[in-house]
Amino acid sequence: MYLSSNISFFNSIEELASQEQPQSDAHLLVLCHSGQLLLETTVTYRLAAGDMLLCPAGWNINKFFASHDFKGDFYIFRKQVIDDIALHIIHTNNNLWIHYRFLREHPVLHLNGRQLHIYGLLAELHQLLMEDEHNLYRDNIVNMLLQLGVYEMLNWLDTKMPVKEQSAVPTPRMSRKDQITGDFVRLVVEQKGMQREVRWYADQLCVTPKYLAVCVREKMARTPHEYINDVLMTEIRQLLQQTDLTAQQIAHRLGFTSQSFFGKFVRSHTGMSPLALREYLRNKDRV
Q1: Most confident of 12-26, 66-80, 161-175
Q2: Which stretches does DSSP call E strand in the chain?
Q3: What is the rounded CA–CA span in Å between residue 209 and residue 205?
Q4: What angle do CA 41, 45, 46 make, to 5 degrees?
Q5: What is the DSSP string of 127-173?
Q6: Global pTM value
Q7: In this predicted structure, what is the pLDDT of residue 154?
Q8: CA angle in degrees (0–180, nearest 5) for 113-114-116
Q9: How many angstroms separate the Cα of 281 from the Cα of each of 1, 23, 270, 278?
Q10: Closest listed residue to residue 13, CA positions, set 86, 70, 84
């Protein structure tokens, strides 16, 4: 078992089921190495060896059944992790939103031997890190391994999705709202949240701010302002944790009109001052 503020890792269904109800924005990823697993959340899933399941946010285990030879890995990762990964990936993958929608429509994937070998190696690395409790960089390494796993999944989807489109069960087409939301996400990440006016994004997408808000609420269950602020806070956290820039320098780099306004923004989203947030981020991995 491995627990951190944003990622949790379990290698038994009993450990996972014994945990408290996860946060409402947490996603669950299950990888079945052998045997069979029946998992009942809001939907009932049946997994066999080689299957990977991505449960959407809001899942809750109602009941489960695992065969005697079942072996699997379970990952819980929260919105902050997803936003961080998107910041790293979206610049090199223009189809990120399409992939996300595909996974939402097809939550159970069957992996080939190569994929299983790669994810098995990642699970072994996670196991080693769980035992290394005094490693100050453990959470950072786990985050990097998770990114590696996501890149490998995207590579697999690039080859899998065209096959799906030719099969008897075609990949659902992206709606206009999906396209607008995906383009909005890409623009926000490219701007690192520094462009905070919803109208600016609406103008870039040739829609009204009201219609953009309708699309984002329907597809992401939050407002455009909330997503912009989430991405901006991700950038702020990275700069506070990974650089020695002063609060004033960060405020200037991210386009805040003053250090005071920057401090108020951080407090409104974290309850802490920028300096207190920096101390928390740098010390939490050492606990």
Answers
A1: 66-80
A2: 2-3, 7-10, 27-34, 36-40, 44-48, 51-55, 63-66, 71-77, 108-110
A3: 10
A4: 145
A5: HHHHH-TT-TTHHHHHHHHHHHHHHHHHHHHHHHHHHHHHSSSPPPP
A6: 0.56
A7: 78
A8: 65
A9: 22, 20, 12, 5
A10: 70
